[in-house]
Give the backbone structure.
Amino acid sequence: MTELSIWTARRSVTIAAPPRRVYQLVADIDRWPALFGAVRAVEHLGVDATGERLRLWGTVGGRTGSWLSSRAANPKRLQVRFRHESVLPPLVSLGGLWLVVPKGGGSHVELAHYFRVVDDSPAEASRLEQVIAATSGTLLASLREAAEGRWLPLAQPVEVMPA
């Protein structure tokens, strides 16, 4: 059996804010519904030695729904790795990395996604890369606005939506 190709979608942004502040916004998943319009709610499902499991509700690529995700935050490296445990076809798997790197007096943030598609279809991979790129661009723009102080998410209770 042939192994499917790993496709990559990467987007980045430079932010005029300290790396630690930027990382804290990325790592604080409870603020995501206030920070990122695509994320509506987050439910914590558990923590183990490798990270945490979450259910997120939101809209991606015009699809509204929920997905299970595992993530591992590394404050020393200013990175958060994630993997979606449940994906819908044409995806076979999806994971990625948020990486914050000091740059001058600010930060450079990369959001990378790694995915596999059904039948290793280049057409589907290209379409999904465009969807992921658009979503990533929106997430990074919101992150920059919040980190640079043009918009600060308010502390608010996290609303848990039924599965």
